[in-house]
Amino acid sequence: MNIFSRRTALAALSALALAACGDSGAANTPAGGTVSAGSELGHVKGNADAPVTLIEYASPTCPACKYWHDDISPVVQSDYVDTGKVKFVFREYPIHGPDVPAYLVAMCAGEDKYFDVLDELFEYQSGIVESAQNGVLKAMLQTIGQRHGIESEADFDACMNNRELREQMADVYQTAEAYGVTGTPTFIINGEVHQFANMNSAEKVTAALDAALEAAGE
Protein backbone atom coordinates (compact mmCIF):
# COMPACT_ATOMS: atom_id res chain seq x y z
CA MET A 1 0.00 0.00 0.00
CA ASN A 2 1.40 3.36 -0.98
CA ILE A 3 1.73 5.45 2.19
CA PHE A 4 1.64 8.61 0.06
CA SER A 5 -1.64 7.70 -1.64
CA ARG A 6 -4.36 10.28 -2.08
CA ARG A 7 -6.59 7.83 -0.24
CA THR A 8 -4.78 8.84 2.96
CA ALA A 9 -5.95 12.45 2.57
CA LEU A 10 -7.41 13.95 5.72
CA ALA A 11 -10.66 15.17 4.25
CA ALA A 12 -12.40 15.34 7.61
CA LEU A 13 -9.67 17.21 9.46
CA SER A 14 -10.50 20.78 10.41
CA ALA A 15 -7.57 23.11 11.05
CA LEU A 16 -9.68 24.95 13.60
CA ALA A 17 -10.95 21.98 15.59
CA LEU A 18 -9.71 21.68 19.15
CA ALA A 19 -11.64 18.57 20.10
CA ALA A 20 -9.40 15.62 20.79
CA CYS A 21 -8.89 13.53 17.68
CA GLY A 22 -10.97 10.36 17.81
CA ASP A 23 -11.65 10.87 21.51
CA SER A 24 -14.88 11.10 23.43
CA GLY A 25 -13.56 13.65 25.91
CA ALA A 26 -14.35 11.36 28.83
CA ALA A 27 -13.23 12.23 32.32
CA ASN A 28 -9.99 11.01 33.86
CA THR A 29 -9.86 7.28 34.43
CA PRO A 30 -7.39 5.02 36.21
CA ALA A 31 -5.06 2.99 34.03
CA GLY A 32 -6.40 -0.39 33.04
CA GLY A 33 -2.92 -1.87 33.44
CA THR A 34 0.64 -0.95 34.16
CA VAL A 35 3.13 0.04 31.49
CA SER A 36 6.61 0.82 32.72
CA ALA A 37 7.84 4.16 31.47
CA GLY A 38 11.19 3.06 32.84
CA SER A 39 11.60 0.78 29.82
CA GLU A 40 11.34 4.03 27.90
CA LEU A 41 9.33 3.05 24.92
CA GLY A 42 8.97 6.53 23.54
CA HIS A 43 11.08 9.67 23.59
CA VAL A 44 12.14 11.19 26.87
CA LYS A 45 12.81 14.67 28.20
CA GLY A 46 13.88 15.49 31.73
CA ASN A 47 15.20 13.85 34.86
CA ALA A 48 15.04 10.05 34.66
CA ASP A 49 14.42 9.94 38.42
CA ALA A 50 11.72 12.61 38.51
CA PRO A 51 8.89 11.82 40.97
CA VAL A 52 6.24 12.32 38.30
CA THR A 53 6.12 10.83 34.80
CA LEU A 54 3.93 12.48 32.18
CA ILE A 55 3.29 10.41 29.05
CA GLU A 56 1.66 11.92 25.99
CA TYR A 57 0.14 9.87 23.16
CA ALA A 58 -0.15 12.14 20.14
CA SER A 59 -0.62 12.44 16.39
CA PRO A 60 1.25 15.07 14.34
CA THR A 61 -1.86 15.79 12.27
CA CYS A 62 -4.20 16.24 15.24
CA PRO A 63 -5.12 19.92 15.77
CA ALA A 64 -5.62 19.39 19.52
CA CYS A 65 -2.12 17.93 19.74
CA LYS A 66 -0.72 20.98 17.97
CA TYR A 67 -2.56 23.28 20.33
CA TRP A 68 -1.15 21.41 23.35
CA HIS A 69 2.34 21.36 21.84
CA ASP A 70 2.31 25.08 21.01
CA ASP A 71 0.47 26.59 23.98
CA ILE A 72 0.79 24.23 26.94
CA SER A 73 3.92 22.14 26.45
CA PRO A 74 6.26 25.16 26.90
CA VAL A 75 4.82 25.72 30.40
CA VAL A 76 5.29 22.06 31.28
CA GLN A 77 8.84 22.20 29.94
CA SER A 78 9.91 25.31 31.84
CA ASP A 79 8.07 24.75 35.13
CA TYR A 80 8.24 20.98 35.53
CA VAL A 81 10.64 19.23 33.14
CA ASP A 82 13.52 21.72 33.32
CA THR A 83 13.21 21.86 37.11
CA GLY A 84 13.53 18.08 37.46
CA LYS A 85 10.02 17.56 38.82
CA VAL A 86 8.58 15.75 35.80
CA LYS A 87 9.90 13.27 33.27
CA PHE A 88 8.12 13.70 29.95
CA VAL A 89 7.67 10.71 27.63
CA PHE A 90 6.30 11.28 24.14
CA ARG A 91 4.74 8.28 22.42
CA GLU A 92 3.64 8.01 18.80
CA TYR A 93 -0.04 7.27 18.31
CA PRO A 94 -0.70 7.50 14.56
CA ILE A 95 -4.37 7.90 13.68
CA HIS A 96 -4.23 9.50 10.20
CA GLY A 97 -2.52 8.36 7.00
CA PRO A 98 0.41 10.82 7.06
CA ASP A 99 1.28 10.12 10.69
CA VAL A 100 3.44 7.03 10.21
CA PRO A 101 5.73 8.52 7.52
CA ALA A 102 5.90 11.81 9.43
CA TYR A 103 6.97 10.02 12.60
CA LEU A 104 9.49 7.93 10.66
CA VAL A 105 11.23 11.13 9.57
CA ALA A 106 11.59 12.17 13.21
CA MET A 107 12.86 8.73 14.22
CA CYS A 108 15.34 8.50 11.33
CA ALA A 109 16.80 11.89 12.23
CA GLY A 110 18.03 10.35 15.49
CA GLU A 111 17.00 10.61 19.10
CA ASP A 112 19.00 13.83 19.57
CA LYS A 113 16.97 15.48 16.79
CA TYR A 114 13.63 13.79 17.39
CA PHE A 115 11.98 16.68 19.21
CA ASP A 116 13.40 19.20 16.71
CA VAL A 117 11.67 17.33 13.90
CA LEU A 118 8.53 17.00 16.01
CA ASP A 119 8.48 20.79 16.41
CA GLU A 120 8.50 21.14 12.62
CA LEU A 121 5.81 18.51 12.14
CA PHE A 122 3.50 20.56 14.34
CA GLU A 123 4.66 23.88 12.88
CA TYR A 124 3.84 22.72 9.36
CA GLN A 125 0.80 20.63 10.28
CA SER A 126 -1.52 22.35 7.84
CA GLY A 127 1.02 21.97 5.02
CA ILE A 128 1.42 18.27 5.78
CA VAL A 129 -2.36 17.81 5.72
CA GLU A 130 -2.67 19.71 2.44
CA SER A 131 0.23 17.83 0.87
CA ALA A 132 -1.45 14.53 1.78
CA GLN A 133 -4.69 15.74 0.22
CA ASN A 134 -2.83 16.78 -2.95
CA GLY A 135 -0.70 13.65 -3.28
CA VAL A 136 2.64 15.36 -2.57
CA LEU A 137 3.25 14.25 1.00
CA LYS A 138 6.60 12.66 0.13
CA ALA A 139 8.01 15.94 -1.16
CA MET A 140 6.81 17.78 1.94
CA LEU A 141 8.36 15.29 4.34
CA GLN A 142 11.56 15.11 2.29
CA THR A 143 11.97 18.86 2.72
CA ILE A 144 11.64 18.52 6.49
CA GLY A 145 13.98 15.54 6.55
CA GLN A 146 16.67 17.33 4.59
CA ARG A 147 16.93 19.93 7.34
CA HIS A 148 17.72 17.16 9.82
CA GLY A 149 20.26 15.03 8.02
CA ILE A 150 18.06 12.91 5.73
CA GLU A 151 19.61 14.48 2.68
CA SER A 152 19.01 12.31 -0.39
CA GLU A 153 15.91 10.68 -1.80
CA ALA A 154 17.61 7.32 -1.29
CA ASP A 155 18.11 8.14 2.40
CA PHE A 156 14.47 9.15 2.67
CA ASP A 157 13.22 6.01 0.95
CA ALA A 158 15.40 3.87 3.20
CA CYS A 159 13.89 5.63 6.18
CA MET A 160 10.36 4.94 4.99
CA ASN A 161 11.21 1.25 4.52
CA ASN A 162 13.02 0.82 7.85
CA ARG A 163 11.30 -2.23 9.30
CA GLU A 164 13.02 -1.89 12.68
CA LEU A 165 11.68 1.61 13.20
CA ARG A 166 8.20 0.58 12.09
CA GLU A 167 8.26 -2.26 14.60
CA GLN A 168 9.47 0.14 17.28
CA MET A 169 6.56 2.46 16.52
CA ALA A 170 4.16 -0.49 16.64
CA ASP A 171 5.53 -1.47 20.06
CA VAL A 172 4.95 2.06 21.33
CA TYR A 173 1.45 2.09 19.88
CA GLN A 174 0.60 -1.17 21.64
CA THR A 175 1.44 0.29 25.06
CA ALA A 176 -1.65 2.48 24.65
CA GLU A 177 -3.91 -0.55 25.06
CA ALA A 178 -3.14 -0.78 28.78
CA TYR A 179 -4.53 2.72 29.25
CA GLY A 180 -7.51 2.41 26.93
CA VAL A 181 -6.25 5.17 24.66
CA THR A 182 -8.70 5.84 21.83
CA GLY A 183 -7.74 9.32 20.66
CA THR A 184 -5.15 12.05 20.79
CA PRO A 185 -3.84 13.69 22.73
CA THR A 186 -4.15 11.40 25.74
CA PHE A 187 -1.98 11.88 28.83
CA ILE A 188 -0.87 9.53 31.57
CA ILE A 189 0.35 11.05 34.85
CA ASN A 190 1.94 8.45 37.13
CA GLY A 191 -0.37 5.78 35.75
CA GLU A 192 -3.59 7.83 35.72
CA VAL A 193 -5.24 8.56 32.41
CA HIS A 194 -6.13 12.19 31.63
CA GLN A 195 -8.18 13.01 28.55
CA PHE A 196 -7.63 16.20 26.58
CA ALA A 197 -10.80 17.76 28.02
CA ASN A 198 -9.09 17.72 31.41
CA MET A 199 -5.71 18.91 30.07
CA ASN A 200 -6.69 21.64 27.62
CA SER A 201 -5.31 24.61 29.52
CA ALA A 202 -2.07 25.39 31.32
CA GLU A 203 -4.06 25.83 34.53
CA LYS A 204 -5.59 22.34 34.32
CA VAL A 205 -2.25 20.72 33.50
CA THR A 206 -0.50 22.58 36.31
CA ALA A 207 -3.17 21.47 38.77
CA ALA A 208 -2.87 17.84 37.65
CA LEU A 209 0.92 17.81 37.87
CA ASP A 210 0.93 19.58 41.24
CA ALA A 211 -1.54 17.00 42.58
CA ALA A 212 0.69 14.18 41.34
CA LEU A 213 3.74 15.79 42.95
CA GLU A 214 1.88 16.13 46.22
CA ALA A 215 0.78 12.50 46.06
CA ALA A 216 4.41 11.55 45.47
CA GLY A 217 5.42 13.41 48.59
CA GLU A 218 7.04 16.35 46.82
From TrEMBL:
<comment type="similarity">
    <text>Belongs to the thioredoxin family. DsbA subfamily.</text>
</comment>
<feature type="signal peptide">
    <location>
        <begin position="1"/>
        <end position="26"/>
    </location>
</feature>
<dbReference type="InterPro" id="IPR012336">
    <property type="entry name" value="Thioredoxin-like_fold"/>
</dbReference>
<keyword id="KW-0560">Oxidoreductase</keyword>
<keyword id="KW-1015">Disulfide bond</keyword>
<dbReference type="InterPro" id="IPR006311">
    <property type="entry name" value="TAT_signal"/>
</dbReference>
<dbReference type="Pfam" id="PF13462">
    <property type="entry name" value="Thioredoxin_4"/>
</dbReference>
<comment type="function">
    <text>May be required for disulfide bond formation in some proteins.</text>
</comment>
<feature type="domain" description="Thioredoxin">
    <location>
        <begin position="9"/>
        <end position="214"/>
    </location>
</feature>
<keyword id="KW-0676">Redox-active center</keyword>
<dbReference type="GO" id="GO:0016491">
    <property type="term" value="F:oxidoreductase activity"/>
</dbReference>
<dbReference type="InterPro" id="IPR036249">
    <property type="entry name" value="Thioredoxin-like_sf"/>
</dbReference>
<dbReference type="InterPro" id="IPR013766">
    <property type="entry name" value="Thioredoxin_domain"/>
</dbReference>
<keyword id="KW-0732">Signal</keyword>
<protein>
    <recommendedName>
        <fullName>Thioredoxin domain-containing protein</fullName>
    </recommendedName>
</protein>
